[in-house]
Design a protein that fits this description.
With 196 residues, the protein is mostly helical. It is 63% helix and 0% strand. It has 11 helices and no strands. Helix 4 runs antiparallel to helix 10. It is globular. The mean pLDDT is 96. It holds the Pfam family CMD. This is Carboxymuconolactone decarboxylase family protein.
């Protein structure tokens, strides 16, 4: 049972219009946003931040951004966000081999060194205490420019917010996200946890 019950998708007309973004991303409006709309300024600000963070300004692809989100969510243990991130990676064209082997990104040949550097950055930046060090910085600069690093940290930070929001709320997870979580993450023990 969630801490706060999500409202209907049509509760706030402005949020509903902005939330059309999620129909492309996930195929549904997430319950996290439906809960945020109890304070519409929060839901609207969050959706606009999400759109800005996920915009492609450089070589950081939509699929890689979603895999960065998955690594961040995996590091914090948020099962809700893990399932959403892997579903969005799938919908944004991540290679099947990457989806099937996301847990092994450090060693699996489906991932490039540039992707590994980005995903290691996500893992280090999502830990408490933060583990970004000179080694991570050096690897990032071998493959990415400063604007692209800002894009990546935008994703990591956005999911830091979402991980805390959804784990604290115990946000109910939607069927589509459950399907993706079970398909790609279930073999490694993923389940809905408290996100019933």
């Amino acid at each position: 049972m969630p801490l706060v019950t999500p409202l209907s998708p049509d509760h706030d007309a402005e949020t509903q219009k902005l939330a059309d973004f999620y129909n492309e991303t996930l195929g549904f409006c997430p319950n996290s946003v439906l809960t945020m709309q109890r304070r519409p300024d929060i839901s609207k600000a969050f959706i606009n931040l999400n759109k800005a963070v996920m915009a492609n300004e450089g070589r950081v692809t939509s699929a890689l951004k979603r895999m960065i989100a998955w690594v961040s969510s995996n590091a914090t243990g948020c099962r809700y966000c893990q399932a959403h991130a892997i579903r969005a990676a799938e919908r944004y064209g991540a290679e099947q081999e990457q989806l099937d082997n996301i847990w092994e990104y450090r060693t699996h040949p489906a991932f490039s060194e540039a992707e590994r550097a980005a995903l290691d950055f996500s893992l280090a930046a999502s830990q408490v205490p933060n583990a970004v060090d000179d080694s991570i910085k050096t690897r990032l600069y071998e493959h990415w420019n400063e604007g692209e690093i800002v894009e990546m940290l935008g994703v990591i930070s956005l999911f830091g917010y979402l991980n805390r929001w959804n784990d604290s709320m115990g946000t109910s997870i939607e069927n589509g996200a459950v399907e993706s979580g079970e398909q790609y993450l279930g073999k490694h023990g993923w389940n809905k946890g408290k996100h019933i």
